[in-house]
Every structure is written in structure tokens, then in C-alpha cells.
Here is the input.
Amino acid sequence: MFLIKVITEYKNINLDKTFDYYSDVEIPLYSRVLVPFNNKEIVGFVTEVVEGGKSEFELLEVKGIIDEKPIINDELFSLATFMQEKYLSSRIQALQTMLPPGLKPISKQKEEVIYDLYIEISDSDEKLTEKQAEVLGNIKKESILKNSVLIEKYKTHMINALVKKGYLKKIKKKRELVLIDEKEVKFLELTPLQEEVYHKVINNDKTVSLLHGITGSGKSEIFLHLTEYHLKQGKSVLVLVPEITLTLMMQEKFASHFKNEIAILHSRLTNAQRYQEYQKISEGKVKIVVGTRSSVFAPLNNIGLIIVDEEHDSSYKQSSGLMYHTNDIVIERASNHNAKVLLASATPSIVSLTKAYQKQYQYLVLNQRFFKQPLPKIELVDLNYEPINNIVSNKVISSINETLKNDKQVIILLNRRGYNTMIQCRDCQETLMCPNCNVALTYHNSTKTMSCHHCGFSTRNINNCFYCGSTNLKRLGFGTQRVEEYLVNTFSETTITRIDQDAIKNIKQLQKSIDDFKDKKSNILIGTQMIAKGLDFDSADLVVVLNIDASLAFNSYDAIESAFTLLVQVSGRSGRHSGEGKVLIETFQPNHYVIQRAQQHDYLGFYELEMKQRKKYDNPPYYKIALLLVSGEDENKVVKEANSIYEYLNENLKDVIIHNNMNAPIYKLASRYRQQIVVKYKSIESIKDEILRLKKSYGSKKGVSLTIDIDY
Here is the structure.
């Protein structure tokens, strides 16, 4: 008999412990099992197997074994424990965060595999017709024996007849993810400055190097050379990018050099594709993984290098469930593997640069573009004085026209999708709001709907006021759809591409849109922040930034940093190959230090100014932040519980700063009212015990929930 220790699929922190069962057969460690629990059959995760083990209690038997072999290794199980302790979560929540669909320890999961039918040629003595013999002869010459391909070429009845007579067999094969088909590309020779960075990363006695490289400085070429070096050492390499757009670009670069050594992981893959890529990595079939945030949990063995490109990006912070930061996981995994970490960005995060200045990280600089072109000239369009022609200024229209006449391309950034950003009633003066959230509905002209970009609510009632019934409505503000329509009418002979969540529904559309602009099938590219970084186009000489002032108004301590990085990153798309880049920024605040520093390409100047603000208001990196969010459908109960939590923390925490409970930036979201309490602290030990007590207290409380974001 075997004693089987199991943690259950329930994330409630009060159940964050092992439960004992028995089995007459040995069960793989770190596998999923079916166990009886509270009169239900649920999924459990095996954490320990003891042959002949005994318990003081009468044990129930394991009802079923889901996995024939472990679904994670020792290192990843240790990582789950690290996440549990750092983020004050349950261990099962950490495991469910780490694993892909199809492997999560949770009920109603199924093996996420897609199979394709292939034809296998066999021997038979059955007599063939003349036509059948001819087709069989042709099939034997085919290079691809996929059933669907052969049916299209030779018809279903013919293939089935040859199968029936035993000359062909149908077999199932797992569908593999096909990478971009690229011809092999030779490595570019590194510049002396790149060569210096390359050797310093390899020879660094610190785990982490921070590479501060201006846009177009050739950071990705260093990535490729470092990857080649570590592969030759028998190591594996993990490459992280913040967004799907960058995954495509990085995938293309790596596939052209390393071919079948790569696995790809990102959210636009189907569950089946993610499951199969995960299995391919786990089985050691690849040595390189390229992907977005969740790829940090890829089951690579013997990691030698982890690269985090655009390390400043907020996408590296998980904003729901277990709210981890990718950099924390990267550094922990690097420690487990004795690996190197390379954090890279043209605009390093305030926190990362501070750690570099404090000598926690090695600080490396690339201050010259790869092809030695100058950084683009940035001009401000002061909307307080500059005439606006409908949506954009006359100066912008004139610059676009001049750029197109020179056979060059234009990139336009507007970080707001939709057609109109709000609709207001002229009679009662009310703004039409989402019934589930306290946010204005966005009008989408392509679907003739008003939608909420937070909860997904949508309505076709676009002609009547919700509150007084009037038809006297006015549409205000503009998003990418409206800018596209205006430019299509203004530059009617120019093809325009739009990239945002509404225009791009799948990975193929995204790839086609990028390729069309790259191949000059379109000459104006409009998009949200999806187009702001990582993209490299030969002929893009003009970049236009619209409505940056909205980004400066966000209610978050790091909103200013995000606005600055957005400006610098999108500006870097201009003049990467011609050296004649130009950027126009429309703004009502031309003297704002963010816009001034961005115009001068002065990151370090921005850093110094922003650090003064961070120190003044006790924000990171001077303090860490824990954000406690109380939510529920009963507004009075939410307010009462938030007050109670604030009073409890105020009485029991020492050496911290607590901001009184206040409405969340979006006070009502998906029909739930939300209040938040901000705790600023120096050490997690100063808040750990009381936070855990609160989590356990609210784990079983009905009608109101408490979520806690450590290191917000």
C-alpha cells in the first residue's frame, strides 16, 4: 500500500494543506489524481508518495490516476512553493497559474490534443482497377501524405477504395505548431559596442544584467548571439516578450537561425496548441522557448539564459488570479538553474534601473543605433494653437502627405480603440454608461454597437438615450476606427492598415497586417500600443502620436512612467533604416516633463525627475505596495467591510503607510462595487501575518471578496 499526500483543486487558502489517501499501486509524484472529498470526486495533485506509509486516520482510496507521468519537475514544484510564499497565495493556485489548459489541476479538464489524419502506404494482393493503380502510383510519389490533401487531389471515394483494399492505411498524428517558414539567415557581425555587451553578459558575476539600449540599437542581434553561445554549452534559453505582436517578430528572427529548436507560447494559440508546445518542451524536444508572460513557466531543463525583452512593460505583471510579476519568477528560476538573466529595454523600468544603480544588477548601455542612424527628430504639435482639421491637426495632415509623396510610410499611434469614446444626451446631459460598470460606452461604427471594453456588455440601441429616451445624442472623442475612416477619405489612393483588438481577431490576421505594411502593400499603419514597440519597418519615416494627454491622466502611480515609455518606444519605429525619421506628438501639455524629456530622448533626465515624485509620495522603489481590493454586489456591505479592514490594519500593522479605503479607479466593474486599501511597506515580513489572517477570514465569507496584490 502507498500513502498518497494530495493538495486539492480548491484555491481557498484555508484548504492550503495536504490530505492523505491510499493507493494499492504506486502513483507518479507531481501527477493529477481523482480523489473523494466532501462527498464529491475532485482533482488532486500528488505532492508525496510513501510506500508502506501509515496514517492515524482511516484513509480513503484514490479513485483514479489522470497522468501516467509527472506533469512538472522538482524545480517547478519548488517554484510553486516560492510563489505561494512571496505572493501569500495557496500552493494549488500557484500550480494552476503555472500549467497550461489541459494540465491544470482542476475538474473538467481534458487532454487538449488535435490530431490530423495521414495516409500510410501498405502492401496488399487485392486487384486494382487501372485508375486505382494509377492513383496509387501517384500517391507513392507524394511528399506529404496528409489525408485532407490527398482527398482534395484524388477524391474521397478513390482514397477510401484504396484503404478498403489494404493499399493505404489511415493513421492519426498529433498536429504540430508550424513556425514561420524562413530561409536560413546568417548571423550579423556584432558592432564593437554590441560585442562588449555580449561578453559582459557571459562573464558577469551577477545573475542579472540590465541592458539599456536605445531603439534600433540591435538588442535582438545580441539575443541571437547569446542564444547560440548557450546552446553550444548544452544549455537551453528562454526568451520573453510582452505582447503577441513581438512574439511574431521574435519568432521570425529565431526561426530563421535555429529552425526546429524552438517552441512558441502565447495566448493566441489554441488550448490544444499550447498543450502540445508544453509537452514538446517537457519532453526535451526543443532548447529554445519564445513567448509572452506565461512562458516563464515553460518546463525547460538546464536553463542557461533567460532574456526579458522590453522588460519595462506592464504586461509582465499578471493582473488577475495570482498576481505575479514575471521578473520575480525569472530571477528565481535563474537562481535554481545557475543561469544568467538579461533584462533589456530602451526605457528600463524605474525599479530595474534603481537596482542597477544600487549594483544589484550589472548595468549595460547601447547608445548607438545598429546602422548608425540618428534618433528621429521629435516635434510637438501644440493643440492650444495649432488648427485641427476635423480629427487631427493641419500639421499632421501636411506631414503625412509629404511622407507619402516621398514613397515612405506612416505609423499613427492612438491608444484608444473604437469610433467614438463616449455618447452624450443633449437633452438630459447624461453620458451613456455601461449598466454593469461605471465607465462610458464606446461606439463602434463597424458593428453599429456601443460596447464596454471592461465587462463585454454590448448594445445595438445607439439612437436613444438610456435615461430620458431622447434621440438628440452627440458622439464625442475618437478612437482608431474613426481616425482610420478619416484618413481613408483624406488619402483615398493610399491603403491603410489598422491593428487593434477589434481589427485583429487571430494570429493569422495579425501576421498578415504586419507583413502587408512591411511589404508596402499599405503605407499608413494605425494602431493602439500593439504597434508601439519591437516592430521594424524599412520605410517607416513618420510616426504620429495622437491624444497622449489621456495617458498622462491615468490614476496610477506609474501612469507617468507608462506614458513616457510609450512615447519613446513608438518614436523608435521611425527612421530605423533611412536615418531621416520624424515624430509628431499632438498635445495640450507641451511643457509637461514627460513630453519634454521624450522630445529630447532624455531617459535619464526623466528618471531623475520621476524619482523625486516617487520619493515625495512614498511610491516604488522607495516603498513596496500591497493593494487590497474589496468587492461585492452590495455596495453598503463593500463599504462596511473596507472600513473594517482598514481599521484592523491600522491597529495591527507597524512601520507601514496605509491609505484610507477609497473607491477603485473603476468603482463598479461587472456589477461589483469595489473599494481599495493601499498599504506601503519596506519588508513583506511587516505585513505578512496580518495579510494572511485577512485572506483566511475572507476565504469563507459570502457576499464580499478580498483580493490582494502583493508588490502592486
Notes: The longest strand covers residues 657-669. The chain has a mean pLDDT of 90.
